[in-house]
Amino acid sequence: MKCAPDHSRATSPAFAVKPRLIRQLFLPPLILLLTVSLGYAGYRASLYSGIRALSESGERQLELNGRAVESEINKFTFLPSLLELEGSVSTLLADPDAEGHRQAVNDYLEGLNRRSHSSAIYVLDTTGRVQASSNWRDANSYLGEDLSFRAYFQDAVRGQDGRFYGIGTTTGEPGYYLAHGLEEHGKIVGVAVVKVRMESLEERWQKARLEAFVSDENGIIILSSDPARRLKSVRPLTPEIKERLARSLQYYWFSLTELQPLERETLADGVERLSFPAAGSQREVSYLAQTRELKDTPWHFTLLTPLQDLRREAVIQGVLVAVAFGLVAFFLIAWNERRKVIATRLAAREALEEANSLLERRIAERTENLRASNDRLKSQIRERRQAEETLRRAQDELVQAGKLAAIGQMSTSIAHELNQPLAALRTLSGNTVRFLERGALDIASTNLVTMNQLIDRMGRITASLRSFARRGEDRGRASLAQAVDATLQVLAARIEGLGVQVHREYSDVQLPIGQTRLEQILGNLVGNALDAMADSPQPTLWLQGDRLDDGRYRLRVRDNGHGIDAQARAQLFEPFFTTKPGEQGLGLGLTLSASLAAAAGGSLGAEHPDEGGTAFVLTLPPLNPLPPTSPVEPS
Ligand code: ADP
């Protein structure tokens, strides 16, 4: 079965394998890479959309908490200016050395401080020395201290509002200092300062689990929900800045360091992503840091929103995206493989159908050829049969012609054989007439008997010749066994009379001669043998058949009779040769038998065994195979 050529396979095998190999080699890493990339992209997208959502909600939180911080700060703004209204303060500042005034101011400030929940309230003269203070009772009271180096004093004494966050040099406590220049008749006579502790804000943030810090104008974190971040700088500190701040003692002697996040990413104006090491662990904590300015101060409020949950969610989203892509890729590959399998099956089916139709076409062609050759064969068979028929007829004609020729050859002998009795008959009949006229009836009767015998002999001669010359039966199909049986049956009386022992050693073969012809030959041969054994003490007849190498069948008819002398052997097959006395032999048996055998394509010969007797050998050709009865049918 031949399939249609597949052009896709026309290239060399190495090239045919290559794309598949490339697919198998590069597809899995590519899919893996895409899965990881998409997963990462999903993670990033989820993280950023989460951050955006978070920053929107954080914006509101920032505003809310920023305002809370502002209100906390601003609620003390008016307090220092209140002291301007207090007469005792003016009196004290006008005459700091006068006794009694200071104590009155101290008491006033103490009471005011208690009521306003501030940390301390004190009054400085224009030189920066503390003239009165709410904490006059404390051991570390500010009274008498020179705070002229403080920036808030310097601002306030110049008529500006002094806002300052710092650590008290006396108490070491941090606080928000609000200073106001106290004016009298348009002239600054002193400075009122309120120190506010803002830890309550930090406590509030901690309670609300809010992560936030406030950084001052120097970028130093002054308030923080996480104490660890306090007094850290949110901006890089140059050595000059550090020195300036140290000199101002704003942060007392605390060493100022930078708040150094592990990672810092600016997302928008005032929005950053910061990562800090988590307390007590190696892990880092990421925050969304949103910063806004605090009104009326140079400070900034920063709200930190943890991104941990967001990150976890983003990781889950990324994993989901990766898994979804992996599944899609898997289904696509599976679908593609299935499509290929179906395509291959379809191609195979088409190839099969193509091959089937080709096969059918070929079968039809072959059948047509077979039919044609069958027809040719039939006509050849017909021709052969006709030729055989013609041949057979020609052979019959030939045989007939041969027989007639044989009779022609014998004609002299026949004429001689017939003339003799005819002459004898003429003489005898003439004599008989004369004897009858004389009345010699006995002699006439004897002559008539002799004449009768002569006529019989002539009748037998013509009968033999007529039988020989008759058409047909020269060829045909004879059963040897049947012919022998028939012959022995005809001669049974003589066989029994002589007490002949018959040995039959032949097979029942079919021979190419007419049945009657074969029986005629056998009758002659067996009859002669019986004649020859008439005086034998133990007459025995052998009928022995065998097949020769060339396929011919040979039948030997042997007897243990008197045999044939040398002289007679040469004449055996001559017509009318006989050694039999009187009317017993015609001398035609062997001649005619040999002619019949020759007509059937065989031969008849004589052998003279050493042990005595005679053997006549009849050899006939193998029977022609029958022509086929039916023509070959196309398969
Ligand atoms: P006929 O039998 O009429 O004599 P045949 O042609 O049959 O004529 O035989 C010719 C002669 O051959 C016989 O006369 C006989 O002498 C001799 N002959 C034939 N057969 C045998 C035989 N079996 N044994 C001895 N002689 C035979």
From TrEMBL:
It holds the Pfam family dCache_1. Keywords: ATP-binding, Cell inner membrane, Cell membrane, Coiled coil, Kinase, Membrane, Nucleotide-binding, Phosphoprotein, Transferase, Transmembrane, Transmembrane helix, Two-component regulatory system. The lineage of its organism: Bacteria, Pseudomonadati, Pseudomonadota, Gammaproteobacteria, Pseudomonadales. Its main location: membrane. It comes from the Bacteria. It comes from Pseudomonas eucalypticola. It catalyses: ATP + protein L-histidine = ADP + protein N-phospho-L-histidine. One of its GO terms (molecular function) is phosphorelay sensor kinase activity. Residues 349-404 form a coiled coil. This is C4-dicarboxylate transport sensor protein DctB. The chain crosses the membrane at residues 21-43, 314-335. GO terms for cellular component: plasma membrane. It is a multi-pass membrane protein. It is found in: Cell inner membrane. Its EC number is 2.7.13.3. The keyword Secreted does not apply. Signal peptide: none annotated. InterPro entries: dCache_1, HATPase_C_sf, HATPase_dom, His_kinase_dom, HisK_dim/P_dom, HisK_dim/P_sf, Sensor-like_sf, Sig_transdc_His_kin-like_C. It is an enzyme of class 2 (transferase). The keyword Transit peptide does not apply. Residues 413-624 form the Histidine kinase domain.
